[in-house]
Amino acid sequence: MFNYTLRSLAIAIPTLLIISLVIFLLLEAAPGDPLGEVPLTVPPEVKEKMRTALGLDAAWYIRYLLWLKQFFWIEPLHLVDRIFGTGYAQGMQRVISFQSRLPVMDVIAERIPQTLVVVGMAYLLGVLIAVPIGILQAYRQYGLFDQVGSFVAMIGFSVPTFFTGTLLIIIFAIKLHWFPSVYDTTLRVTDWSSFWAQVRQMTLPVAVLALANASQFSSYMRASMLDNLGQDYVRTARAKGMSERVVVLVHVLRNSLIAVVTVIALGIPGIFGGAIITEQVFKVNGLGQQLISSIHANDLPMVMTLTFIFAILIILFNLIADILYGLLDPRIRYD
Prior knowledge:
The protein is mostly helical. It folds into two domains: about 40-95; about 110-330, Orthogonal Bundle (MetI-like fold). The protein is about 75% helix and about 0% strand. The longest helix has about 40 residues, at about 190-230.
């Protein structure tokens, strides 16, 4: 397992470099100009100086190599300086956002707590709801619980989140006035009253995302459980006199989780990416909303950095899923 992890990490390095180059070239080829919003009254020479200040006058490969240096060397050094109070990155140019003129990593660090709180909580809640529901649906196949669960899962999986979010806002925010319709990102939890206000404003966006996640995961869990319940080892375990609880929750569940782990692990990077549509509906000031606004503003450093971080997370959690395979099923070897 250790050797497999090292080999995977060694392969991941050139893979990430190729991905970063592809992302950069796609952004270069995309239509639009970072200075497209500059008023026409600005003289051409001033606009040219602005382009030079942003580094847009350099060749594309120079700007790409500079971004690699900033992302893999300068930004980690700045993080070390921030943690230990050193000065290794002093005077070095960081990745700067065209839109806000602030370091990209500082903007990401400012917005990621909102994304993790809302999207992360919804993801965790969706998993906690989906796994037991999928188990019960498979064990009581074609029963009332299975039919109701399948119907709810079909609705949650089919209906887009912008429709579900809008519907919940109309019912619970506008009609009943139970929850706010807009997420207040300036709220700080300092006492019980502010904590309750935070719970209230999280309820609707978390409910929308949790429904979508639980619908997907419960369907996978049900299908995986049904596949394993019909295997020979289940009949053998029952013939040996094992209790139904041990058969289902130990043998069948462990083997069923192998397929579900892939879906859950590969969905975790989406937590950091934010729920773009849901964040727009509820005005959550997270990374998803930041990515949309950066694309509209042609903020290439921000879009490049965010999309590359998502690529790193996807490769990382692919590796984690592979490792979990070996832990869940001793028959799987990576020799």
